Amino acid sequence: MQENNNIEEQEVDLNQLMRIRRDKLSELQEQGKDPFEITKFNRTNTAGEIKADYDKFEQKDVTVAGRIIAKRIMGKASFCTIQDSDEKIQSYVSINDLGEESYKAFKTFDIGDIIGITGFVFKTRTEEISVHAKEVTLLSKSLRPLPEKFHGLKDPDLRYRQRYTDLIVNPEVKKTFEIRSKIISNIRKILEEEGFLEVETPVLNTISGGATARPFITHHNALDINMYLRIALELNLKRLIVGGFDKVYEIGRVFRNEGMDIRHNPEFTMLELYAAYEDYNDMMDITEKIFTKTAQEILGTTKITYQGQEIDLTPGWKRITMVDSIKEVTGIDFNDIKTDEEAVKLAKEKGIEIPDVTKETRGDVISLFFDEYVEKTLIQPTFIYEYPVEISPLAKKCPNNKKMTERFEIFIGGREYGNAFSELNDPIDQYERFKKQVEAKEAGDEEAGMMDEDYINALEIGLPPTGGLGIGIDRLIMLLTDSASVRDVLLFPTMKPLLDH
Q: How far does Cα 36 stand from its chain's mean position?
């Protein structure tokens, strides 16, 4: 392999180590001992099972398997440590037990190789539970060294790109994803107990709808049409309520072609649920139940710490209207501001920039004031409800205030975790709101929704009064695992490709 003079010494060493490992593999293959030809290995127990119940396994024969993460050669006897799916365990390996040829082969094994060990369980003089090896089998040859033990894999960018290595050398990362799985399972259990039916809806749609977001666009060759990756689960789930299901939910991937930061990934997991004959007050109740029961089940408490902030998830969360929350923080009462012109003037006086002329409405200004002044102050769990109609195209208007809607969002630690409505079921009103979204899109708003004639048709068939809720699963998992970035709770976050050199 030709080497460039600019290659760092570390990279040269890596190339040399990889060549040595490949040479070892070639030698094994020439001897007819190619580990990659092994198709199955019958292990009897995991390391975790043995270490959790030593009395049961003491002096009993077991067969374990895992990756070598440590190795100490001492002449005619050696120690190695393997790591499997749930634990690590030490093994004592000697020439007297394996024989000269097998022991010689064992000494050539590298950190990172995957091996199987058959032997009996015992404790060393230092009381460490171990396996006294009678037979060692090389199951897979690691051709690339793992990161050096003490420095490890610390670069976040490399950790996210090479999650497989991250999981091996940083055990706490694996724990996060085990908790993630348990959280999702627990949510499913809660919803099943509440009578919800889990369903699946299409990822590819001919119309982008159900939320305000810029979609990903792809092309369906057979139909010769553009299609959109879903930005929400909402509209199809509500079609099922029209069809006669009373309670449905989906936990699924959605896709939004927007910016990336510690809280946003282009694809993420959403929970959306819909319940006939319920409203947004019922959705507040089930939200509290999902958060508090999940925290209690997974963490054993509803009082947690997130990024240094103490948060109490115990039921009884604060509930306050958006207008009142602004008044509480700033002293400004939008109940006294009746027109778009008054609201826009106030925004300019406060130095709040309105993104474009299509958003120069009282409702949009209320939303901007909330974002600017209030959101960051909401540390303890809070329901902010009654959102302006301009930013809530799928929510019912408040009976006593037609400029506001029966919508809420969930805020914890200064961040939004979910969104809910008393769902709009008036097809005439819904059609007019879709039209406004179309007008906004034609004016250049790439996040505005589209006209969905079929959904209007479904509403004309008849949607009962319905409560709907959406929760960002990734953010909930961040909260319950004290993770600073959404990338820390996604096994494979979206990454910019590395440039070829």
A: 33
